[in-house]
Amino acid sequence: MGKDAISNQIRILRFHHNEMTQQQLADRAGVTRQTIVAIEKGNYSPSLELAFRIARVFGKPIEEVFQYDDKQ
Amino acid sequence: MSYQEKKVFVSIISSLLIFTLYTIYAVNNAEEGSITSASDFSFWGSFILVLLPVSIVAKIIIHIGFVIFNKIAANEDEPSFEDELDKIIELRADRISLHVFFIGFILAMIPLVTDLPTYFTFLLLIVFGFLSDLLGRIAQLYFYRKGV
């Protein structure tokens, strides 16, 4: 299972939430900005707990924020 | 470059500087024949025992200097906590460090069972101790840039 198998809509969701900055999202999710940058770029697949926290920040179900591509 | 990347980069440079400068100092101040002596290993013992505290103190000073300089230059505060990505990267880097040191430890045993001079054992332990730290940091930098 490669890390590229999990994609996300964080960048778009940030834009639709009053152009929330990466730092603001990081503060609300309880991580550093570096981690949000890595997740957005697809360089890091977050833990299930962090994925839920990020989804909760946007008020969305987790599957609307993160998608798993099972074609691989 | 993120704060974490800058911090690791500074750590790599400071490790290189501290080890190089201390090695030059220790070799220049060593007593005649003490480095290659086959029976007296006090040079190697004192090298390791002094290097550890010197390295720790120097790294703390350099880190404080970096935090102050970074605050002035980039107006960026040090993150007050380590999150899951930091911890995963640290664990992976530590694993690489451990493997490198283990290889060095095994290699360091070879002079004890062959005709090679015994001081090679200490030399290999010190070199691989340094390399394990350095490669661990480089791995950390790589994981921050390329992801885990």
What spatial order of strands do you see in the largest sheet of chain A?
Answer: 1-2
Oligomer: heterodimer
- Helices of chain A, by number, come to 5
Shape of chain A: globular
Number of domains of chain B: 1
Secondary structure class of chain B reads mainly alpha
Order of helices and strands of chain A: EHHHHHE
Radius of gyration of chain B: 18 Å
CATH homology superfamily name of chain A: lambda repressor-like DNA-binding domains
Derived from helix and strand composition plus strand pairing, the structural class of chain A reads: mainly alpha
Q: Order of SSEs of chain B, N→C?
A: HHHH
**Low-pLDDT segments of chain B:** none
CATH class of chain A: Mainly Alpha
Strand content of chain A: 5-15%
Instruction: Tell me the major beta sheet of chain B.
Output: none
Give the CA-CA distance, first to last residue of chain B. Answer: 17 Å
Percent range of helical residues of chain B:
over 70%
The largest contact between protein chains, plus residue counts on each side, is: A-B, 16 and 14 residues
Helix content of chain A: 40-55%
Question: Overall mean pLDDT score of chain B?
Answer: 93
Give a quick set of tags describing it.
heterodimer, A: 72 residues, mainly alpha, 434 Repressor (Amino-terminal Domain), two-stranded antiparallel sheet, 5 helices, 2 strands, 54% helix, B: 148 residues, 4 helices, flat
Mind explaining what this structure looks like?
The complex is a heterodimer of chains A (72) and B (148). Chain A has helices at 10-16, 22-29, 33-41, 48-58, 62-65, and strands spanning 6-8, 66-68. Chain A has 72 residues and is mainly alpha-helical. Chain A has one domain: 434 Repressor (Amino-terminal Domain) (Orthogonal Bundle), CATH 1.10.260. Chain A has a two-stranded antiparallel sheet with strand order 1-2. In chain A, α2 (22-29) crosses α3. Chain B has one domain (3-146). The model of chain B has no long low-confidence stretch (mean pLDDT 93). The radius of gyration of chain B is 18 Å and the shape is flat. By secondary structure, chain B is mostly helical. The A-B interface holds A 3, 30-35, 37-38, 41-44, 46-47, 50 and B 2-5, 79, 81, 83-86, 144, 146-148.
